[in-house]
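My current task is to audit a protein record that another person submitted. Thanks in advance; the entry in question is below:
***
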Amino acid sequence: MHLSRRRTLALIGGGIVVAASASAGTFLATRTPEKALSPWEAAGSYEDPRLFALSYALLAPNPHNRQPWLVELTEGTSFLLHRDKTRALPHTDPFLRQIFVGLGCFIELMAVAATLQHRSAEIELFPDGPDGPIAFVQLRDGGSIDPLSDHIMNRRSCKEPFEATPVPKDIAQKLASYGQVIQDDDSVAALKKLTWDAWLTEANTYRALKESVDLMRFGKSEINANPDGIDLGGPFLESLMLAGVLTREGQLDPGSSGFQEGVKIYQEMLAATPAYIAITTQGNGRADQIEAGRRWLRLNLETTALGLALHPVSQALQEYEEMNAHYAEAHRILANPGETVQMLGRLGYGPTIPRTPRWPLETRILNG
């Protein structure tokens, strides 16, 4: 069943898509990819303490939802964390910096989740050197529950326009322990321009754009089959797919209506940002990148607890030639000499958004 292009586009402005017939409406009402979202329901349902903690850890934020983690279960309550080398982003993350930040998010969420069973995680990074496993983890009995664990299931990365409401000063001061909160008008304006210019640069750099488009999952069937990458689903987007407005080919064609609609959506989203937060590190080694990811994860849980939305805007921090000027500008604005900006995020009040698809835990265990 196909919607007419005219009917669909006429309804975009109001933010509501109405099916052209009852059967189309029924079809669109069933567009939730339940299989791809099932890991959220399974979180915490495992008896093995390692699997218990890991079932939450795989819900961690990570670049392009690549989910670059593999786990090797070892003796007792220990395991080794490996990087899945098939899940790199060679064009937009050529030095794997963002991948290691994502691994840091995974490690921290695992550690937070372990406290739900009054266990602590002893973490040794790179136990066999830089080319070996990412971490050796031993879960120990004892310890108190991390208060941030209450917010694991509600944590999101909110890729939507935020309200104009400013972040209250007392909340901004609390978040300052995680990173630099930017709220003054001039700096916010400069970062709005930077993030938009960087997004346009990526959208107009074919190899970088194609890397993202290749990872787009169009509709329920694709998302269920490959619950990683960038999920494009739900009644609204699937209506555009049915109408032929949203296609993989169109996302690679700057002249297409689908591409231009995407530009408008991102411009509106990036402009609707009352504040930012940046995480920097003194060094830029793998341990620094993992530490930044751990801090970002806790920030994401903290903002959830405070009713705030958080959305990483990483284009200006990417390290490929076309992004060099934006990278330099990001560091001029946000970093002291010698520091590396590891994460930049939009901060504000945003809508509740759906969960993100994940691979089941069993697919991420090497020897389960």
